[in-house]
Predict the structure.
Amino acid sequence: MTSYVYRPSASPSAAADWDRGRVLRTNIRAILGRAYPRVIGSTREKSWIFFEIALPFLTTSAFVFVYRSLQAPPEYIGFVVLGGAMTAFWLNVMWMMAAQLYWEKDQGNLELYFTAPIDLMSVLLGMAVGGLFASLIRAAVVLGVGTAVYGVVFVVDQWLLLLAVFALTLTALYGLGMVLASLFLLWGREAWNLTQLFQEPIYFVSGLNFPVGRLGFLGALAIATIPLAVGLDAMRQLAFPPGSLPFGTPPPDVEALILVVMTAVFLYAARVMIRFLERLARQEGRLIARGR
Amino acid sequence: MSGVEGSSTPGKVAAGLRGRADFDPARAEGHGLADSRRAFTTSVRLGWQIESNWTDPLLFLIFLVARPVASALILIVMLEVISGGANRDLRAFVITGSALWSFVVAGMAGLAWSVLDDRERYRTLKYLVVSPSTLVVMLLGRGTARVASGAMGAMIAIGVGIVFLGVPFDVTRVDWGLLVPVMVVGLASIVALGLLLAATVLQSRQDSWSYPDAVAGALFLVVGAIFPLTVLPGALQAVGLLVPLTWWLEGVRQALFPGALSSIGGAGSFYAQVTGRLTPSGGEVIIVLLATTAIVTLAAATIYGVSERRARDRGLFDRTTGS
């Protein structure tokens, strides 16, 4: 039975006099509820299969042909295909995580989130889970078709570490997405432009189509700060023959640790930012005002 | 049309009301060309404000330049990794191609994003549709602002390439007689492709923000933007030759860097096999560009017309979606 306390409270969650089990169930329902429109929406708008799965493969192919025109070693084709697959996650994080709270404000949903007795982290997690659905399909298609069409050969000795690095890359990426979602909401209209700005420049410093170690200090900086850069480099080290990557970057197990640290830092930062936003929204009310 | 019911455009509504003493048809039908001109200029001004007034000029400049320069740098590093910077011709080729491509992306996205912006974010599309102005004129105006910002970004990126990345450029050798017509017709082809995308997103939901990038990315493969077409299989080369952007890029390269590497021709290319010549002449580029642009423009206008009618019939203009 629903019950609320009748006293001044810091948040709707605090006002809801629920036991832990109910809080947990409500938040799980919030996660599933926020993921639902993304998964179901995908099945209702079939055009995304063409525009977001088939066409991005052609973009990746363009970079494959650049290497072919240069008669590059075959591993480089594999680097491009793997990089092309990982762009699906980066684009999803930028467009459907980072910019999302700003969209929600424009659509009038944000005040509902702030007034519902749920943790806003559940909403963000739901966005991530829902977004992962389409991104995983897109990445799998680019990787699978690219491997088949361009004859990419993977040499994997440490499957477990490779899978762990992949999972850690995703958690770090979506953790970063949660932080950016809060920041973009604060930045208002700049969010839209930042979403565009954080594409090619990030692809460049992350070494999307080439070994990131080639960038020297810039590459090292990217490995220390951008999950896409460190995750991609670790996966390349684990998926291609030793010696394919001629420039020194940390070994994959060290890069996995970097990803663990990134995940923890980003999730903590996201939590702090969300609390800050909730306070701003409730005390000043300006975060949910449209048109800012 | 005998009455107002079932009318799907302001013009038809006006036709239904014509004859009533208290009704001025011009208020629904507009004032013809003068209205279109005013709607266009207002849309351009509005589009430019939306594009640029979110930040200070310095940050806006960085924003304009960052994408095309980063795109060029990705390709430069790819070249450096493999060839160690030995091939300066190819460097000029990829820098020009990627800079121009950012212009293409901006031009193609402009119209489509205007539809999405006005329908999903500002929720004003339905009001624009029922106003006496023609929707496509307003969309073209909004798209023009993005084309302008894309052009600025492309020019600065080429400038960065010339000054910092060793692109060999001599202003006295520029073939203006080729550059000007190629740019004018090329711009028309970019706008036509943008119109096609606008027609598409009129029918789709909010998540189609990324569609212009996806389409541009796919065309990237077949137009010789970052590598000569001769690398591709013959069938893909043939597809590329049907796209006006291929000829536009070739024309701009020939005009800015006479004697530079051709994206269309070359030994063993499909073009050379069909025509028996190694590279197309400037005149040939203009003629084929005109022909392909005419076809794309006709197709875009037709498809857009069908899409707009369907959107009116199904009430898609005031539909907002989310995910």
Remarks:
- Residues 30-318 of chain B form one domain.
